[in-house]
Specification:
The structure holds two protein chains of two kinds.
Chain A lengths: L9 H5 L2 H14 L8 H4 L2 E10 L5 E10 L2 E6 L9 E12 L1 E6 L28 H7 L2 E6 L8 E2 L1 E4 L3 H4 L7 E6 L2 H27 L13 H5 L36 H7 L6 E6 L2 H10 L7 E5 L4 H7 L11 E4 L4 E2 L6 E2 L1 H7 L3 E4 L6 H5 L1 H10 L4 H8 L1 H6 L17 E4 L10 E6 L2 E5 L2 H4 L5
Parallel strand pairs in A: 1-4, 5-6, 9-10, 10-11, 11-12, 12-15
Antiparallel strand pairs in A: 1-2, 2-3, 4-16, 6-8, 7-9, 13-14, 16-17, 17-18
Chain B lengths: L3 H14 L13 H6 L34 H5 L44 E9 L7 E9 L2 E6 L9 E4 L4 E4 L1 E6 L8 H4 L5 H8 L2 E6 L2 E4 L9 E3 L4 E2 L5 H30 L17 H7 L5 E5 L2 H14 L3 E5 L7 H7 L2 E4 L21 H7 L4 E3 L19 H10 L4 H8 L1 H6 L17 E4 L10 E6 L2 E5 L51
Parallel strand pairs in B: 1-4, 1-5, 6-7, 10-11, 11-12, 12-13, 13-14
Antiparallel strand pairs in B: 1-2, 2-3, 5-15, 7-8, 8-9, 15-16, 16-17
Helix pairs in contact in B: 6-7, 11-12
Chain lengths: ~450, ~525
């Protein structure tokens, strides 16, 4: 392999975004393969030369090269080798960073308010891409992935991870794994959670008893009990993520055939309590008091949790920041990027920084579910950075940590080897309010290019 | 020589204060020296007698709650630390508790690793007012896991005891608020309370540690969901105002009485072998009617709201006829028939500040009276005091809401109630009336560690609550909270103001020199 030039990719240069969409629509008509758009980039190496690459996972590299093959990042660095027939994209006036991820929104979901334990409900069938071009606008503002949470109270269902680029085709990246639990009315939610945990534990004990009591039947495979049986059917995390979620979730697997039927809404909780990889309960609090009530219910029960603090005030933060639930790096916390003021003063109070100081892994979601608020997100981050949040933490909060929150961090969230080349290119620093997103690359394919005629050129 | 006059006064007052030979067991002999010092942390000479336990349950039958289960005292280890160091050369709890070579009481489990670690908390050196007994100065209250374990001088404190130095402060049991709404949540309070609510904090600031909400007793534990629930189904709330209400209640009670009579008859007949005996109908005592059976059997208390003389007389007649246990809320005109209420054994929850316009057509005693509580108390009625408001409010008039229960009790003192009875009316009597006096209401061994540490006597109007302790945990510290920290702080503040811009410091402007300055005497560098 030698370092050399690549030939001109004329097609991607000539087509604007609108033309591309038209082409995609035609392609859909003839070959309705959901992954058709990725085919173009599969067979060739693409090299993007940028002014700066914000890798998020590592340090920021000036004058970097990003080598992409098969839609995935092959290498990133100041000087990396690539095949001579690679297509080289010159973006030396742009800053590349992984696409932004919104961990928590309902944009595009119908307002179906569920209540009670509906943990088995998924959003795949409910999601309809909005007609109002809001997803295109989100893509233009740099957001490539949204975590759509089911609206409602109690345990309204599972979070759907959705792409903003061609949402119709992708039907959701991932539908299982993140259970939404609303815990803002302790009277009802405490009872619901307590009952659910009790029932799930009872089911686990029942299965355990059933597997331990009778003598192992000859020839029966799951003789070791339900625990080994649950292992092989772990969540399809290692598989390529762009796949319509059709397979049943892992939770239904652990029950061996002779056991009585388990209620479907309990299956995710059984998987949670058994610590099956991939299932996480996402607890949403409204007040500091809710955290204590929640801690009382889950005392002695260990399962994967992440937290959303919606509508917290300073007093709430002050009251729970030292709580044992939040201590340690394990606690994953989602916040709106609001900068609050100390009472009766104009002194700012950086809630995000307080949570980071407490050892939490922080992710930020736009304060309102509007396109406008998504577009303003980088400004809000800049304001937080100006008031004490570290720059790296701020960028991480909307990329890598958001991917971690949605459990897609193995494939998204940073510029690293073997992650999808979902990048955005800005004409300045991402925290600079005057900068804007000029190009967006999805799986190695430039799906948006606002200044192709001015800046794109081929180097030989 | 500065306190020479105080010695004289002390000598004169000594007999009246009860500092005499009968108190020798309670106090060190040099009481006068102790009186001279506002705060005597170490008593001047080492005691050789057992440290005082002010309220051993058996020794005070008059004040100790009759309903206390025997489990409460016996669950406490008999090896109360106070009794241990008697033979040793004693050292004082305030002076060197940590340096003791073996300061762990024998009752502490040492060989049980599975058990969670015991938490100890001690209030050292204050003047303790256990409502059930005499007040004592310079004693230590040791709490273990939220319960009071020992009270006395010369206590050996375990090494990891959290200590609160209350030298010079007055310690009272936590106040029981008899009727509240909105402080702790609905039903059940341990699941619905917003434990970080400001009203909870203000309730703690007002000395409230226990509230009765609806039919439930709950603790006011700011910042913790542990130990909120105290007891449920305290009483049976009934109405006895209108004619139909009176008739239906009397009928229900009569049916229960008839049932019990028939049941007794039936039991006797079946015992004699009468096969034809017919069992009585169970309808009057089953389902929703169980409460009437509980009333007749005196298992539960009935709570009525009644203010007028006529209603109170009707309730007295009800009690005289059926022998049920009755608590009256309100009882505004109770002072007109105190003897009748006292004979009927009715307990009253009164609001001394209640007033009403007199009806000039009625030629009888009527209306509200500030002496109500005192008159009822003198006629043997158990009196609890509660303000007219049900919650903490920011209404235009301070002192009428739940935060100022001591003020309400002080009004009853103005009306003639003894001070001890007035304090009891917001602590122990209130707990007794609601049947929770085995847990709260006084500072006694075995009860919950709920008390307040004040900078003066509770009913004085300038007294502030400095610390509130609930379940052995400090839930309120006046100087650390924003509400009242600026009012007579404990120590001169050396810390800067918490916020840069608030409150604004007052900077007097210097007057301009004559002939200088602008039209308004402004020079441009006058500090603006």
């Amino acid at each position: 392999m030698r370092v050399g030039s690549a030939h001109l990719d004329s097609m991607s240069l000539r087509c604007g975004p609108r033309a591309w969409f038209r082409a995609a629509a035609i392609a859909l008509l003839f070959a309705a393969a959901p992954r058709a758009f990725a085919q173009v980039a599969e067979d060739a190496y693409i090299v993007v030369k940028v002014k700066k690459a914000i890798t998020v996972s590592g340090e920021e590299i000036a004058d970097a090269m990003i080598v992409i093959t098969g839609g995935k990042i092959e290498a990133v660095g100041k000087k990396v080798d690539y095949p001579s027939d690679s297509r080289v994209i010159d973006a030396t006036n742009l800053v590349a960073m992984p696409g932004l991820i919104d961990p928590r929104t309902t944009m595009g979901l119908p307002r179906i308010n569920r209540s009670g334990n509906q943990s088995h409900k998924k959003l795949t069938g409910e999601f309809h891409p909005p007609e109002d071009h809001s997803y295109e606008k989100l893509l233009k503002s740099g957001y490539i992935i949204l975590g759509l949470y089911p609206p409602g109270a109690g345990m309204p269902g599972q979070v759907l991870v959705q792409t903003t680029h061609q949402p119709k085709e992708h039907e959701g990246l991932k539908d299982a794994g993140l259970l939404r639990v609303v815990f803002n009315r302790p009277a009802m939610d405490k009872r619901l959670l307590r009952d659910t945990l009790k029932q799930a534990q009872a089911e686990i004990d029942k299965v355990k008893e059933a597997s331990s009591k009778p003598a192992p039947q000859p020839g029966s495979a799951p003789a070791g009990g339900p625990q080994p049986a649950s292992q092989p059917t772990s969540r399809p995390e290692s598989k390529p993520a762009i796949q319509p979620v059709t397979s049943k979730p892992a939770a239904s697997a652990p029950s061996p055939p002779p056991t009585p039927k388990i209620r479907p809404e309990l299956e995710p909780w059984i998987a949670l309590l058994k610590k099956d990889a991939g299932f996480v309960a996402q607890i949403e609090f409204a007040r500091a008091s809710d955290v204590l009530h929640f801690a009382e219910v889950v005392k002695g029960k260990e399962f994967a949790k992440s937290y959303v603090f919606a509508g917290f005030e300073i007093a709430d933060v002050h009251n729970v920041i030292d709580h044992e639930l939040l201590g340690g790096a394990d606690a994953m916390v989602a916040l709106p990027p609001n900068l609050l003021n100390m009472p009766m003063t104009v002194n700012p109070y950086n809630v995000a920084q307080r949570f980071i100081d407490a050892g939490c892994t922080l992710t930020l979601y736009p304060a309102a579910e509007t396109v406008d608020e998504h577009e303003k997100m980088r400004e809000r981050l800049a304001l937080l950075v100006r008031n004490g949040l570290k720059r790296g933490d701020a960028i991480k909060a909307v990329t890598l940590n958001a991917a971690k929150y949605l459990q897609i961090d193995k494939e998204y969230g940073s510029i690293e080897k073997d992650k999808w080349a979902d990048l955005i290119f800005l004409n300045g620093d991402p925290l600079d309010p005057t900068s804007s997103v000029r190009r967006v690359m999805i799986h190695g394919e430039m799906v948006l290019n606002l200044d192709k005629k001015k800046t794109s050129k081929v180097i030989r | 020589m500065r306190y020479c006059w105080l010695i004289l006064v002390g000598l004169i007052l000594a007999p009246t204060l009860g500092i005499g030979p009968e108190m020798a067991g309670d106090r060190p002999k040099t009481t006068l020296t102790a009186l001279l010092q506002p705060a005597p942390p170490p008593s001047p000479e080492p005691e050789t007698q057992p440290a005082t336990q002010p309220a051993p349950p058996s020794s005070q039958p008059t004040t100790f709650p009759s309903t206390q289960p025997t489990s409460a005292p016996t669950s406490q280890p008999t090896t109360v630390p106070a009794s241990q160091p008697t033979s040793q050369p004693s050292h004082h709890a305030t002076s060197a508790p940590a340096s003791a070579p073996s300061s762990v009481p024998a009752s502490q489990p040492t060989s049980q690793p599975a058990k969670p670690k015991d938490s100890y908390f001690a209030v050292v050196g204050g003047t303790v007012h256990p409502v059930s007994g005499r007040e004592q100065t310079g004693v230590t209250i040791l709490c273990k896991n939220g319960r009071i374990q020992a009270i006395g001088r010369n206590l050996k404190l375990p090494e990891d005891t959290e200590k609160l130095d209350a030298t010079g402060y007055h310690i009272y049991p936590g106040i029981v608020a008899c009727n509240t709404r909105g402080l702790v949540g609905g039903e059940p309070p341990e699941d619905t309370t917003n434990v970080f609510a400001t009203s909870l904090r203000l309730a703690n600031a007002g000395g409230i540690t226990t509230v009765i909400v609806g039919n439930t007793a709950a603790k006011v534990t700011y910042g913790s969901v542990d130990g909120i629930a105290l007891r449920k189904d305290l009483f049976i709330g009934l109405r006895y105002r209108s004619a139909s209400e009176r008739r239906s209640l009397r009928e229900s009670l009569e049916k229960v009485r008839a049932y019990l009579r028939d049941k007794e008859d039936f039991d006797r007949k079946t015992a004699e072998g009468d096969k034809d005996a017919k069992a009585p109908d169970e309808a009057p005592v089953t389902g929703g009617n169980v409460k009437f059976l509980q009333l007749i059997k005196k298992e539960k208390t009935a709570v009525f709201s009644a203010d007028s003389r006529g209603e109170l007389i009707a309730l007295c007649e009800l009690v005289e006829e059926f022998g049920i246990r009755v608590v009256v809320r309100g009882a505004m005109e109770g002072w007109t028939i105190p003897d009748r209420l006292g004979r009927a054994g009715i307990e009253a929850i009164v609001t001394p500040r209640r007033q009403s316009e007199r009806d000039s057509d009625l030629n009888q005693l009527q209306g509200g009276n500030i002496e109500n509580a005192a008159i009822l108390y003198n006629h043997g009625v158990d009196v609890a005091v509660t303000p007219s408001a049900l919650g903490i409010s920011l209404d235009p008039f301070a002192g009428r809401d739940l935060q100022h229960i001591p003020m309400e009790a002080a009004y009853s003192v103005r009306g003639g109630l003894p001070e001890a009875a007035a304090i009891s009316a917001i602590t122990l009597s209130a707990a007794k009336i609601h049947g929770i006096d085995d847990r709260v209401g006084s500072i006694e061994i075995g009860k919950d560690a709920d008390f307040i540490v004040c900078d003066g006597r509770l009913l004085e109007f300038f007294t502030m609550v400095h610390w509130t302790v609930v379940n052995g945990r400090i839930v309120y510290d006046k100087d650390k909270e924003t509400f009242f920290s600026d009012i007579r702080p404990r120590t001169p503040t050396t810390q800067p103001a918490p916020y840069k811009f608030w409150p604004r410091p007052f900077k007097p402007r210097k007057a301009p020199e004559p002939g200088k300055g602008g039209r308004y005497g402004r020079t441009g560098d006058d500090g603006r």
